[in-house]
Design goal:
Elements: E1 13-21, H1 25-36, E2 41-44, H2 52-55, H3 87-100, E3 105-106, E4 113-117, E5 120-125, E6 128-137, E7 144-145, E8 159-162, E9 176-180, H4 184-195, E10 199-203, H5 215-218, H6 223-231, H7 238-250, H8 259-264, E11 268-270, E12 273-277, E13 280-283, E14 293-296, E15 300-301, E16 331-333, H9 350-363
Parallel strand pairs: 1-2, 1-6, 2-3, 6-16, 8-14, 9-10, 9-14, 10-11
Antiparallel strand pairs: 4-5, 5-6, 7-15, 12-13
Helix pairs in contact: 1-9
Length: 366
C-alpha cells in the first residue's frame, strides 16, 4: 500500500474527479482504463485484500470459462489454453493485476452513503469523506444472500445454509441434502455433494446451458462459443434479451455439465420448492422431501440502500442504459448481470463494458 493509500482517514474530505466503489474484477477493469486516460481517481474497496471475494467462495470452485477467456484488459491470464482456473488463482490474478498497473486501491473502506451535492457526489465511509464529479459503482452482483421467507418454517433439526456459506462436503454433516436453485452454482454444489456420497436432490427449473466445456464449446479453442456469448447474447439482440430475462429472474445458465451429466452423478432433479409442510420442504408437485439439510442456491439481491438517489426500479435494481444512469449525470455502474450481455459479469467479458464506461467518464468533461 502506498503512502497516499495509507493516509489516516480522520474525516478530512478528499476530492477526486472519479471514484470507483468496489475493488473486484469490474472495479479493477474500469480502473485500468481510467489510468490510461490520466484520470484523477481512486478505487475504494471494503475488503482487506484484492481478490478476497473469490477467496471466500467454496473450495472447489473453478471458472466455467477456460483461461484464454479469463483475462482483464492488458494482462493475459497466466495459464495455458483450456485450463479452468480455481478460485484462489483468480484471486491471485486480480491481486497481481492491481499491482502491475499500480491501481490506486484503498482497502478497508466501506462506503456507507452516496449523495448528490450540486454537480458533484459526496461519499461517506466511516470517518472518511470523499467528493467526486463521477462515481462508478462496481460492487458486483453478490451483495445480500437471498433465501425464501418460508425458510423460517423449516424444522430446526434440518440443517440449512446459503450457498455463499458453503465450503466443502466435509462441512455438511447430514446424509441427504436438498439443493434449492438449479443454476450453475447450485448444480456444481449438488454434483460435489453427490460425489461425496450424499443423497442429493436439486430443485429448480432448467436454466439452460452455456456449452463452454462441450465438444462444441472446445471447437477452435472455444473461440466460436465465446464470440457467440459476447456478440449475440447481448441486450441488442432478440436472443440476448430473452436470455437476459431468464438470467435475471431464474439463475445463471449451466457452464460445465449438462443436466444428463448431473443426473449421472446420482443427483435427483425435482420441481421447484414451493414451501414448507410439517417442517419439511414441499415441492410444487406436492411431494414432501425427507431431506436432512438444505442449501439455498437461491442467489443474491441487490442492496443499494446506501445510494441516496431516486434511480431504482421496483425491484431495487438501478435503472441504467448499459451502465450509464441517465437520470444522474456522472453516475455509472459496472459488473451488473447482463449489463451489456451475458459476458458482463464474467472475468473475461467485463473489460468490454469497462472500456465503454471509461469512455463515458472521459466524455463527461473536466
Amino acid at each position: 500500500m502506498s503512502t497516499e493509500q495509507e493516509k489516516d482517514l480522520t474525516g478530512e474530505e478528499e476530492f477526486y474527479r472519479t471514484i470507483v466503489i468496489g475493488g473486484g474484477q469490474a472495479g479493477l477493469a474500469v480502473g485500468y482504463f481510467l489510468a490510461r486516460q490520466g484520470e484523477n481517481f481512486i478505487i475504494l474497496d471494503k475488503n482487506p485484500n484484492t481478490g478476497d471475494v473469490w477467496r471466500r467462495r467454496w473450495e472447489s470452485l473453478r471458472l466455467f470459462t477456460p483461461s484464454q477467456f479469463d483475462s482483464l484488459p492488458g494482462m493475459p491470464f497466466p495459464k495455458s489454453k483450456n485450463y479452468f482456473p480455481p478460485k484462489d488463482e483468480v484471486a491471485d490474478y486480480l491481486e497481481e493485476y492491481a499491482r502491475r498497473f499500480n491501481l490506486p486501491v484503498r482497502h478497508n473502506v466501506k462506503v456507507e452513503s452516496l449523495r448528490r451535492n450540486g454537480q458533484n457526489y459526496q461519499i461517506s465511509a466511516g470517518a472518511a469523506r470523499f467528493t467526486a464529479r463521477n462515481v462508478i459503482v462496481a460492487t458486483g452482483p453478490f451483495q445480500v444472500p437471498h433465501t425464501p421467507s418460508f425458510s423460517k418454517e423449516l424444522d430446526p433439526g434440518i440443517l440449512q445454509l446459503h450457498s455463499s456459506d458453503y465450503l466443502k462436503p466435509k462441512n455438511i454433516p447430514v446424509k441427504s441434502v436438498l439443493v434449492v436453485g438449479a443454476g450453475n452454482s447450485g448444480a456444481e454444489i449438488a454434483i460435489e455433494l453427490a460425489k461425496a456420497g450424499k443423497q442429493v436432490w436439486l430443485a429448480g427449473r432448467d436454466v439452460g446451458r452455456v456449452p463452454a466445456n462441450s465438444p462444441l464449446g472446445k471447437l477452435f479453442d472455444g473461440r466460436l462459443v465465446w464470440w457467440f456469448m459476447t456478440h449475440m447474447l447481448t441486450v441488442k439482440t432478440p436472443i440476448g434479451r430473452r436470455m437476459q430475462a431468464n438470467v435475471l429472474h431464474h439463475g445463471t445458465p449451466l457452464g460445465r455439465a449438462r443436466r444428463e451429466e448431473i443426473a449421472g452423478t446420482g443427483v435427483i432433479f425435482t420441481p421447484r420448492m414451493s414451501g414448507i409442510q410439517s417442517g419439511k420442504p414441499r415441492l410444487e408437485d406436492g411431494r414432501i422431501l425427507p431431506a436432512d439439510g438444505i442449501i439455498w442456491a437461491t442467489g443474491f439481491r441487490p442492496d443499494y440502500r446506501w445510494i441516496k438517489l431516486p434511480i431504482f426500479d421496483e425491484r431495487g435494481s438501478p435503472q441504467h442504459s448499459q451502465g450509464v444512469v441517465q437520470s444522474a449525470p456522472g453516475l455509472y455502474f459496472i459488473g451488473l448481470p447482463f449489463q451489456k450481455g451475458l459476458s458482463s459479469s464474467l472475468l473475461g467479458g467485463v473489460g468490454k463494458d469497462a472500456a465503454y464506461i471509461g469512455a463515458q467518464v472521459a466524455r463527461n468533461g473536466h
